[in-house]
Amino acid sequence: MGKPLKDGGPQSASEVRDRLAIERTALANERTLLAYVRTGLALAVVGASSIKFLASLAADVLGAFFLVAGVATVAMGVRRFAAMRKRLAALAPCGDG
Q1: Is the pLDDT score of 8 beyond 60?
Q2: Which domain holds residue 75?
Q3: Could you report the per-residue pLDDT of 18-31, keeping only the tens digit for each?
Q4: Which residues are CB-contacts of 38 (< 8 A; sequence separation ≥ 6)?
Q5: For 25, 63, 80, 81, which has the most beta carbons within 10 A of its beta carbon?
Q6: Rounded CA separation 17/20 (Å)
Q7: pLDDT at residue 82 above 70?
Protein backbone atom coordinates (compact mmCIF):
# COMPACT_ATOMS: atom_id res chain seq x y z
CA MET A 1 0.00 0.00 0.00
CA GLY A 2 1.21 3.60 0.50
CA LYS A 3 3.78 4.98 2.86
CA PRO A 4 2.53 5.89 6.33
CA LEU A 5 2.07 9.49 7.38
CA LYS A 6 3.79 10.96 10.41
CA ASP A 7 0.72 9.99 12.41
CA GLY A 8 0.91 6.42 11.10
CA GLY A 9 -2.06 6.45 8.70
CA PRO A 10 -1.61 4.96 5.22
CA GLN A 11 -1.44 7.17 2.14
CA SER A 12 -2.63 6.38 -1.35
CA ALA A 13 -0.67 7.43 -4.43
CA SER A 14 -3.07 10.29 -5.12
CA GLU A 15 -2.74 11.57 -1.55
CA VAL A 16 1.04 11.57 -1.87
CA ARG A 17 0.80 13.33 -5.24
CA ASP A 18 -1.54 15.98 -3.81
CA ARG A 19 0.64 16.51 -0.76
CA LEU A 20 3.77 16.93 -2.91
CA ALA A 21 1.94 19.35 -5.21
CA ILE A 22 1.00 21.50 -2.22
CA GLU A 23 4.60 21.43 -0.95
CA ARG A 24 5.95 22.40 -4.40
CA THR A 25 3.48 25.27 -4.56
CA ALA A 26 4.47 26.45 -1.08
CA LEU A 27 8.14 26.46 -2.11
CA ALA A 28 7.30 28.35 -5.31
CA ASN A 29 5.37 30.86 -3.20
CA GLU A 30 8.47 31.43 -1.05
CA ARG A 31 10.66 31.89 -4.13
CA THR A 32 8.17 34.40 -5.51
CA LEU A 33 8.23 36.36 -2.25
CA LEU A 34 12.02 36.49 -2.43
CA ALA A 35 11.79 37.79 -6.00
CA TYR A 36 9.43 40.56 -4.87
CA VAL A 37 11.81 41.47 -2.04
CA ARG A 38 14.82 41.45 -4.37
CA THR A 39 13.01 43.67 -6.88
CA GLY A 40 11.76 46.04 -4.19
CA LEU A 41 15.23 46.33 -2.71
CA ALA A 42 16.72 47.09 -6.11
CA LEU A 43 14.13 49.81 -6.72
CA ALA A 44 14.80 51.32 -3.29
CA VAL A 45 18.57 51.30 -3.88
CA VAL A 46 18.12 53.08 -7.20
CA GLY A 47 15.90 55.66 -5.51
CA ALA A 48 18.24 56.24 -2.58
CA SER A 49 21.26 56.47 -4.87
CA SER A 50 19.48 58.92 -7.12
CA ILE A 51 18.63 61.16 -4.16
CA LYS A 52 22.08 60.88 -2.59
CA PHE A 53 24.37 61.23 -5.60
CA LEU A 54 22.46 63.29 -8.18
CA ALA A 55 21.96 66.94 -7.35
CA SER A 56 18.79 68.04 -9.06
CA LEU A 57 15.11 68.35 -8.30
CA ALA A 58 14.23 65.87 -11.05
CA ALA A 59 16.61 63.30 -9.56
CA ASP A 60 15.10 63.81 -6.11
CA VAL A 61 11.56 63.36 -7.44
CA LEU A 62 12.57 60.31 -9.45
CA GLY A 63 14.45 58.92 -6.44
CA ALA A 64 11.41 59.37 -4.20
CA PHE A 65 9.28 57.62 -6.81
CA PHE A 66 11.68 54.66 -6.90
CA LEU A 67 11.78 54.48 -3.09
CA VAL A 68 7.98 54.40 -2.90
CA ALA A 69 7.84 51.85 -5.72
CA GLY A 70 10.33 49.65 -3.88
CA VAL A 71 8.36 49.71 -0.64
CA ALA A 72 5.11 49.10 -2.53
CA THR A 73 6.66 46.15 -4.37
CA VAL A 74 7.74 44.49 -1.13
CA ALA A 75 4.34 45.17 0.46
CA MET A 76 2.55 43.69 -2.53
CA GLY A 77 4.79 40.62 -2.42
CA VAL A 78 4.18 40.06 1.28
CA ARG A 79 0.43 40.45 0.78
CA ARG A 80 0.45 37.99 -2.11
CA PHE A 81 2.59 35.54 -0.13
CA ALA A 82 0.26 35.66 2.87
CA ALA A 83 -2.84 35.18 0.73
CA MET A 84 -1.36 32.18 -1.08
CA ARG A 85 -0.09 30.69 2.18
CA LYS A 86 -3.59 30.96 3.63
CA ARG A 87 -5.06 29.24 0.56
CA LEU A 88 -2.46 26.46 0.77
CA ALA A 89 -3.12 25.97 4.48
CA ALA A 90 -6.79 25.41 3.67
CA LEU A 91 -5.82 22.69 1.17
CA ALA A 92 -3.25 20.96 3.36
CA PRO A 93 -4.32 18.01 5.50
CA CYS A 94 -4.68 18.62 9.23
CA GLY A 95 -1.37 18.86 11.05
CA ASP A 96 0.48 20.56 8.17
CA GLY A 97 1.43 24.22 8.61
Answers
A1: no
A2: 13-91
A3: 889 899 999 999 99
A4: none
A5: 63
A6: 5
A7: yes
